[in-house]
Amino acid sequence: MYPASFKQLQALVLVARHQSVSRAAEAMHVTQPAVSLHLKLLEEVAGVSLTRRQGRTIQLTSGGELLAGYAERILGLWEEAGDEIAALKGVTSGTLRIGAVMTADYLLPPMLVRFTTGRPHVRIKLQVGSRPEVIGMLSRDEIDLAIMGTPPREFPTVASRFARHPMAFFVAPGHPLAKAPAPTLADVVDANLLVREHGSGTRAAIERVYQEKGVPLAIGSELSSNEAIKQMTAAGLGVAFLSVHACTLELRNRMLTVLAVPGVEVESHWHVMHKESRAMPKVAASFHEFMVEHAQQVISDELESMAWRDGVRRDA
Length: 316
Hints:
This protein is α/β, with parallel strands linked by helices. The protein is built from 12 helices and 11 strands. It has 3 domains: about 5-75, Orthogonal Bundle (Arc Repressor Mutant, subunit A), CATH 1.10.10; about 90-165 and about 270-305, Periplasmic binding protein-like II (D-Maltodextrin-Binding Protein, domain 2); about 165-270 and about 305-315, Periplasmic binding protein-like II (D-Maltodextrin-Binding Protein, domain 2). It has helices at about 5-20, 20-30, 30-45, 60-90, 110-115, 130-140, 185-190, 200-215, 225-235, 250, 280-305, 310-315; strands at about 50-55, 55-60, 95-100, 120-130, 145-150, 155-170, 195, 220-225, 240-245, 255-260, 265-275. The longest helix has 27 residues, at about 60-90. Residues about 310-315 have low confidence and may be disordered.
């Protein structure tokens, strides 16, 4: 085959990922005709058809799937080469590709700010999604690092614990339970318990709490968004069970308050991980090390400034 350009390879990879020429064009910051031209030229080089339209989506042919796999590896190796050259010069550079579950989105910005301070050549590509979405990104090598509570079981990863993850019940300050002297888990259920969907870390945690305490669990409302749960709770429409990290702004502005349930204090851990079968780029390895060494202190400083545990410990 005659040589192909990196732009042509990138167009194929992005079309394969998004199943859409328009979305691939958005990702490349070019026009749709430009992406179509890249694909046409690449087909001429390869000598086979690479894509086919199926309904409203673009699917790869068998030849396209084969070439897309090589294209992704070539692009990844070129980026790694650039990072290695920068490392020889004593510069930390490259694109830090991170995927984070929705709740982790609240604690990552302070980490990224501290990490990139003094590292002006580092670019950030942060993708936030549900746990299954982030696991999918990691499995397809779309990200180098994933931030979530429990490492996936679908494939081998190398995971490191970097911080504690407190969770709690929350209500609006004017909610009747906020003034109750010793609310119970049954009281919480009766007040319309608002939780995340199945597969989320907080959903698994609340189910475990009720099971261990031997109290029947009845979900009032199930939502796939932390923001929706917080808004409903702030409006007085129920009791939320969420990560404390997701509620720092609302606690600070007194839109929500922690509902202390005696004998119930929930805490898990955050992990940063990468695929066992894939070596981390230099910039990802540097951020991984930074998280393990410094993340807990950054998070502790943030939470202690709100003294959010005081009410929990006083009533426990």
